[in-house]
Amino acid sequence: MKTINAFVKSIQAEKKRGWTPETHPNREGAPSYLRSLEEQTAQVLMTGTLGTTFYASGEQLGTESMQVLTAMRKKDSGYLARALVNAREQGFMKTLPTLGLAIHSAGRGTTKQTFEIIFGRVILIPDDLRAFVQLCKKDIIEGRKGLGGYTHDAARSWVSEKLTEYWVLKYGSNNSDKPTLRDILRLLRPTPTSPAQSELFRYIVKGELGDDPSLNPKLHAYEQLKKSTNEQEIIELIRKGRLPFEVVIPVVKEMTLAIWTELLYQAPYQNLLRNLAT
Hints:
The protein contains 15 helices and no strands. With about 280 residues, it is mainly alpha-helical. Helix 5 runs parallel beside helix 7 and helix 11 (about 215-225) runs antiparallel to helix 12. The protein is globular, with a radius of gyration of 23 Å. The model has no long low-confidence stretch (mean pLDDT about 85).
């Protein structure tokens, strides 16, 4: 009921400002209600897409999303920051919050403090970081040209503090879409803070590992796995390194029932359900 009451009040407020449905036709030309900028922002972040839909192309939706998020940053960057975090954490959205974060960063000094606070809550996985870096460097966002200043510092801190072996295995392929993790490390040049992290960064950039398997056991197990043809050894390496199915299946020459069974113990729920029959 509170939602209905809020909706009624918002429509009444719009009408007091002299607005009527006829002033805002939808894509088919029929009368429609115009949401407030705050509502448009929440709608874009929680339900938006950059792909083509029945009524509009991906280009149209992308342009409109950028216009809404840019207007919201100029009107109230604090509201935009809260909406970005909510969409990522509660709405489980990825692409639009990342786009919104790049747009938020273009506020320069006016948004620096909130940007630094929310960066780690919007950028949760390496794919988020890759998308953010790409958006900043493509020169498509008003006020943002390249990855520099506090955006560069935030990205570098994220890599230094949050990048893990598991993520390097899952997202670190040099055959993935640009920019790759290797591209990002070369751009950011983070300083390793431990021997394990030094080896991790070297592996991303050069594909090299040292002689101590205790530093990055997942990476060492994975490299051994690529050379093994023995079923029992493969199973032990999967178990020892807790290797995810994404990296095991492409490199194992023959997937057996026993190997699939071992993978189920490492599988996320959705992957487990999809592969029960297998």
